[in-house]
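Our preliminary data section would be incomplete without showing what the modeling component actually yields. Below, a chain of 323 amino acids is followed by its predicted structure, encoded as tokens that our downstream tools consume directly.
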Amino acid sequence: MAGGIYHVTCRGNERGVIFKDDHDQQRLLDRLAESQEMFQVRVYLYCLMPNHFHLLVETPRGNLDRFMGSVLTGYTIYYNLRHQRCGHLMQGRYGAQLVKGDEYLLKLSRYIHLNPVQVKAWRDRPTPERVRALCAYEWSSYREYAGLRKPCGWLTVPPLLNGLRRLGVPGTAKGYARYIQAGLVRSDEEFVQLMRSNPIAVGPEPFVDEINTRCMNMAGRSVKREDMALRSIKRWKKREEVEQAVKTVLGEKRDLLTHRRHGAVARGFYAWALQRYAGLTQREAAAQLQIGTGAGICLMVKRALSTKEYERWQGKLELIFKG
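Predicted structure:
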């Protein structure tokens, strides 16, 4: 949605680790910085945890899907190559919840930024100890908001600080820090339950009703409010449509799709496209390419993704499917 503000969540496949060290976390932040500039998305907040991460972003151009596709595809390729693995890294499609209203945005920012000290290992520790851990945590945007490090240059900070002012709280680094740390003493449980009760939207009731209605119309069927999610309106491309697009991208090299011996890179690219755009599993892609196992597809895709041809073909394919 153009101008929408989204709480985005991504989890590792089967809740597995998606950041093994600081280098991985920095790589995702670099990818965020590149993608927000490319797609003109405003990133308000982030918090990276070992097996998941949270973002708060605004999409003036209504292109959240392309932005997140860029972030997640780029990071997954990097991660799989660096750690010598293959296959999906994330658990299905990312979650995307529309948010509106200063009070809701600020409480959500508190929920996101307190993640590192709300885990079981920290939940029952003394408040001063949790505050110190929060201030020391490198992989969230809290330190920038609280004035504990220099601005990174790509994070959009003023809107939330202005929201504090409208609620009568000083819109300064110290004012924001006090607001966030207050959540360690006074629970936001009511807001958290409200947020978790509706995966589509959080905000004033008229706004939530409007978004729910809009999503149900897009889905083309009636569903229960508590079961509805933005991810349910995802529409995969038809396999034939992806195949034709890949052939267009390959141009004169399209015949390589049928050559087992010489067409490994092209066939690996096709297998990746079937999973990325048509939603096929590795096993389904293997059947389409007449390869014995999903593991064979995994190896073929891994080899293709490490080539210069892949980078060029991927860009052309994204242009075909844009919008």
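The first strand starts at residue 4 and ends at 11. The radius of gyration is 21 Å. Preliminary results of this kind motivate Aim 1 of the renewal.
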